[in-house]
Write a structure and sequence with these properties.
The chain is built from nine helices and five strands; from the N terminus they run H-E-E-E-H-E-H-E-H-H-H-H-H-H. By secondary structure, the chain is an alpha/beta fold. The protein has a five-stranded mixed sheet with strand order 3-2-1-4-5. A hairpin with a 5-residue loop joins strand 2 and strand 3. Helix 6 runs antiparallel to helix 7. It is globular.
């Protein structure tokens, strides 16, 4: 029965396609038959399976009333242009088109841009600001560390590096505290002036594609829920719950098992959302 509901959910058109779409991929472990067989302790023939990594591409829709739902997913071999294109092709058949979609939010996954241009050409693309804020930490060179006690003092060096990392991430987060594009750009200039001399690589990376983190400002969306459409955090939370389930399971024994759990968990989250909406009325 679950398999029938799952198939219907993945193929039937959406009654009300969401104007905002959050997309991301999550890696999972699935066992696939190798074509070989073995005898178990009772002498029965068993198919030999081998663990392989797959990515589940997911789309979460957000509506103007603030509610959200997982609207589609697809098991793929990787986050490539062709797999994303197939993913958005299936979404297109469900009714998610250029006419229904105002904004797509992602973390900048490889191959996503070309897939969006193919299926959702002209739709605004928002880069997740949470991922943008974290990026400077991956490009620190720790030049001219302040507070280092003495050359060769390893503990003091670690402490200074930790403080610098914290400081630059705090300043990066302040950039997006403004509610207007002018205020955000002004704070971005302050960030650049403050850190360029000490961490030029981190600043250069932060400024790369900076305009794409401001796409949400051009979308007409209720102010109380604007914070939901500038990051992929809602989808990350769903993935976090899926990772917890996967740790309990260890490894999915088939793609069908993986998709069944994805469906059941997404339906549970949808039920929670509907209950919250009812409580507001």
């Amino acid at each position: 029965r679950v398999a029938e509901h799952l198939e219907g959910f993945k193929t039937h058109a959406l009654e009300s396609p969401p104007p905002i779409l959050l997309v991301d991929g999550m890696w999972v472990k699935i066992a696939y038959p190798t074509g070989e067989c073995r005898l178990d302790a009772q002498g029965r023939r068993r198919a030999v399976k081998r663990k392989q990594k797959r990515v589940v591409l997911s789309a979460l829709g957000v509506w103007p009333d603030g509610h959200w739902e997982i609207v589609h997913w697809k098991v793929a071999e990787g986050e490539r242009a062709d797999t994303w294109k197939a993913f958005f092709g299936e979404l297109y058949l469900k009714g998610v088109t250029e006419a229904t979609t105002d904004l797509v939010v992602s973390d900048g996954a490889n191959g996503l841009e070309s897939a969006l241009d193919y299926h959702l050409y002209g739709v605004a693309h928002q880069r997740c600001i949470f991922h943008k804020i974290k990026q400077p930490a991956d490009h620190l060179v720790f030049g001219a560390l302040a507070g280092q006690a003495a050359e060769g003092d390893a503990q003091a060096t670690r402490t200074a590096k930790r403080r610098r990392k914290t400081a630059i991430l705090v300043d990066a987060s302040k950039v997006y505290e403004g509610t207007s594009e002018a205020a955000i750009r002004e704070q971005a200039d302050v960030f650049r002036e403050t850190w360029h001399g000490r961490e030029p690589q981190a600043v250069a990376n932060f400024c790369l594609d900076f305009d794409k983190t401001l796409a949400y400002l051009s979308i007409a969306f209720p102010e109380p829920f604007r914070g939901l459409i500038r990051t992929t955090n809602l989808l990350e939370r769903f993935h976090k719950e899926m990772r917890r389930k996967q740790r309990d399971i260890g490894m999915f024994q088939s793609e069908q098992g993986c998709e069944t759990l994805w469906y059941l968990l997404s339906r549970r989250e949808t039920a929670k959302q509907r209950a919250m909406l009812q409580s507001r009325l």
